[in-house]
Amino acid sequence: MKKILLKSALVETECDKTSRKDIVIGDGRFLKIADAAAPADADGAEIVDCSHFAVLPAFYNGHTHAAMTLLRGYADDMPLQKWLQEYIWPFEAKLTGDDIDVACRLALLEMIKSGTVFFADMYWHRERTIKVVGEMGIRAAVGVTFAESLMSPEAIEGNFKFLAAHTGESERVRLAVAPHSVYTVGETLLKRCADFARSENFMVHTHLSETKKELEDCERQYGCSPVRLLERAGMLGSNLAAAHCVHLSDDDMKAFVDSGATAVLNPNSNLKLASGIPPIDRLLRAGANVALGTDGDSSNNNLDMHEEMKLAALLAKVQGGAETLPAHDALRMATVNSARAYGLMDAGEIKEGYLADCLLVDLKNERMVPGHNLVSNWVYAADSSCIDSVICNGKFVMRGRHVDGEEEIVREAEACAKRLAY
Ligand SMILES: [Zn+2]
Fold it and tell me: Which secondary-structure segment (H or E) carries 215?
C-alpha cells in the first residue's frame, strides 16, 4: 500500500492548541506525526498539500440500520410503534438481497460524504452489508440480528452458526451479536445471546429503553425495567453497546454504569419519533460511557454524525448548563467513544500507531473562518460540507468531495425505491 504524506496539516496537539504537522500514513496507520517529516519516513509517499486543511478524526457511527436508506421519507410524523408496524415492517418484507446492496451503497455513500468511516449496523441480509462494506472501503461492526417475533427457529439457529464461523469477518469488518430489543426477543433468547457473546468474545448491540411504551410493556410482561431485564439475562457488561437509553431511572442508570456498558445515544431519531430526550447530562454525571449514532435513515432522516454531535452538545447544555459537554467531549463521543464501544481501541484519534482514519477539513470554508478555535468551529459552526476528503485505513475513500461511482449509486437507488414503493 502506497504511503501518504499529509504535508503541513493543522492538527490539534492538545486541548485548544493547534499546530502544523506532517503526517505520514502507511500500512493503514498513522506512522509518524512530526513538525517536519524526515525524508526516510516519507520515502515514496504521495505528498498531499494540506496547508489549507485541518486533519480531524473521522466519525464512528455507533448505531444505525444502513439498508433503511430506501425508506427515507417513506413514513414520517408518527410514533414509533405505528411507524414500525404499519409502514416499515411491511415495506421491508418486500426487500430482496439485491435491493439491500443498492440501499447499503447509498448509505455508505452518505456516510463517507459526511465523514463517517465506521458504522455499527443492525439489519437483515448481513452478507450483503458485509459485501458492500468491502467494496466501499470503510469499516463496520455488522450485527447479526435476532428478532424472535419475526424469525423462524431455524433462522435463529442459522444466526448462531453464522456467528460461530465468524462469517465474512476481515480487517475492516467484524460481527456483533444483535438482539433487536426486549420487545422483539424473549428473556430465554436474550440470555442465550448474552452467554454466546461472552464465551465467543463478541460485542452485543441492542436497542434499549427507547420509548415509554417499551418500559410499560416490559414492566407488565417481566415485572421489571428493560435495563433490569438485560441484567437478569446476563447481558449488561462492558461488551454491550445499547442504543437510545432515553428512559432510565436512577436505579437503571446505576446498574447500567456499574456494568461498564456503553450508551449509544441517537438524539435526532428520538426527537423525530417523539420518544423523548436522552438524559445526556445525567449519564455523564453518573460516569457512563457515552457514544453517538444516527439510527436509520427512516427515522433520522440522514446518517450525518456531525448533526448528531452538535445536537448532543446542545441538548446536554439545556440539561446541565452551558459548560456541560464542551466541544472536545462532544467530538470524542462521535469518534473515539463510539470506536471503543465496538472494540476498536486504537481508533478515533490522530495519534501515531492508531488506525489511519481521518478527515481533511477545508479551512477556507466560510464556516471555519476565523480560526479562533479549531474544535469549536468544527463542532458548533461547521457541517459535513466542510469535509474535502476522507481517509479510511490509510486510503482515500473520498477525495475533493467525490466518491468513486457515486453517480451510479444514486441512479440505482432512485430506480429501486421507485419500484418498491408502488
Ligand atoms: Zn435503531
Answer: helix 212-222
